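Q: Convert this sequence to C-alpha cells.
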Amino acid sequence: MAPKDPQTLTQHAFETISGAEGPADTLDGAAQNAEAANGLRHAASLSMTKVADGLIDPKLVLSWLLTSLGAPAVYAGALVPIREAGALLPQIALAGWVQNMARRKWAWVIGSAGQGICAALIVFWALTLEGATAGLAICASLGGLALFRSICSVSYKDILGKTVGQARRGSVTGLAGSVSSIGVILFALLLISGLAQDRGAVILAIGLAAILWGVGALVFSTLDEQPSEANGGIAASFSVLKDNPVLWRFIIVRGLLVSTALAPPYFVILGGGEEAGALGGLGALVLASALASLLSSYVWGRLSDQSSRRVLMLTGVVGAAAILLAVVLAVADLAQTIWAMPLALFVLMIAYHGVRQGRSTYLVDVSPDDQRSAYAAVANTVIGVLLLVAGIAGGGAALFGPKVVLVLFAVMAVAAVAVAYGLPEADEA
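A:
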C-alpha cells in the first residue's frame, strides 16, 4: 500500500482532533484549503506557549523566586496584579493597530517573541541581582511580558476565526491545553520531589519558557493566513457595547466567573500549615492545575464547539461546588489534611479551564468577522477592571476570613449560571 502524502496525513490528523467533516462553511475557499495545516500549527504554538505560562507562573514560580532572592514581600504581592491587569487593560488601545494589519499573525508573533525576551530578562536579573533591586527589575520585566501577552490576546481570536472554522476552534485550543499540561505536570513533579528545590533549577525552567515562546513564534509565523483589508477594521472602542445586549450579557457572565480565577489563593490559606509556602507545596498547586487542564481542556473544547453557552453554565455550577466544598472541609476541620485542599482545588481548576475554553469559543463565534479584535479588546478591558475590583473586594472581605471570601466567590459563580442561561446559542446570536 502506497504511503499517504503529507497533505492527506495532515487532513486526517486535523479531522481526528476536531471531528471536522467536510469544508468549514465559515471560511472562504483558500482558507478552507489551508485549515488543516493551520489548525495543527495553532495547536503546536499554543502548546509551547502554554507550557511557558506554567513554567513562569507569577503566583507560584516567580513568587518563590523573589522570596529566594530576598526581595521584600511587596514585590511578590504585586506580581499577579501586574500580570493580569497588564495583559488585559492595554488591549483596547492595541486592537485598532491589529485590525489595520493585513496579516494579523504577525501581531501574535511579536507578542510571543516579546514574552520570550522578557522571560530571558527575568533569568538575567535572577542571576545578577538580589533583594529589592531584583524585585523591582523582575516586576518591571513581568510588566513588559504582560504587555506583549496582551498583543497575543487581542490578536489571537481574530486569527483563529480567520484560519479555523466554527465548531472546530474549541477542539484545537483544547488540545493545546491538554498537551501542554504534560510538560507542566513534569515540572510540578520535580518541584514536589525535591529535585528542583534549588534556585538554579527554577531559573532554568524560566529560561526554558523563554525558548518555548521564541519557538512558538517561529511556528506561528508559518501560518497560512489570508490577508485582511488593510485599514478595514473598526477601531476598538466601548461603542461596540451600544445596543449589544449579547456582548453585555457575555461580559457580565465572564466577570462573575473570575471567581474561579481568584479563589485558589484562599484554598492555600485554608490549607495552612507551616509548609504551605514551601516550593513543594507550590508544586502541588501547579500539579493540581496541570492535571485538571490535561484531563479537561480537550473535553471542554469539544463541548464548547457543541454549545459554548452550556459550557459557561456548567463551569459556574462546578466552580461553585468546588468552592463550597473547600468551605465545608474547612468548617469540618479537614482543610489541613493532606487530601482536602488538593481535591477541592483540582475540581475548581477543572471549572477554571472550562471557563477559559467556553468564553474564548463563545466570543469568537458571536463576533462579526471585522470586529473580533474590537470585541475581544473591549471585553478584556472590562474584565481587567472587574478583576481589580473583585480582587479589592476579596481583600476587603478577607478581613472576615477566607471562608467569607470563598462564599462570596461561590455566589458569583452561581449568579454566572443564571445570567448565562439568558445568552443565546453562539450560532443564533
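The mean pLDDT is 83.
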